[in-house]
Amino acid sequence: MAIERTLSIIKPDATKRNLTGKINAKFEEAGLRVIAQKRIHLSKAQAGVFYEVHAERPFYDELCDFMASEPVVVQVLEGEGAILKNREVMGATNPAEAAPGTIRAEFAESVGENSVHGSDAPETAAVEISYFFAGLELVG
Ligand code: CMP
User: Fold this and answer.
1) Looking at 11, 85, 104, 117, which residue is catalytic?
2) Are 41 and 50 a contacting pair, CB within 8 Å?
């Protein structure tokens, strides 16, 4: 399988509870490498652009408020089949449906406050990585 890069966000519910290290340990145990990482505090407008694909969904406004409520850690993960592997490590969007041992099963608080985001396909990964990082910041 090819080496891929994917965009990950450790969300406000997790940074607030000081879970960045525990979540990164899950990625590293799965063979994913953190090749770029920074802690930022998004504005609601910046969160809104990132989640524009969900603009028509009923939870969009709540989602943007949440993502701007506390700092987030944005990161690029690299590894074999990184996009799918990261989604497996994260678990289902709704923590009630997430498999045991996944990040969302262990840490997420609700479907909205679900601790992590991960890109869902190669095309979205490229767009999402470029939203937060310049090429020189990716150190594989
Ligand atoms: P994420 O993987 O970041 O992609 C979109 C996000 O929208 C998702 O995780 C959830 O945080 C959020 N989301 C999805 N469904 C709902 C919902 N029914 N209510 C609130 N937030 C949701």
Assistant:
1) 117
2) no
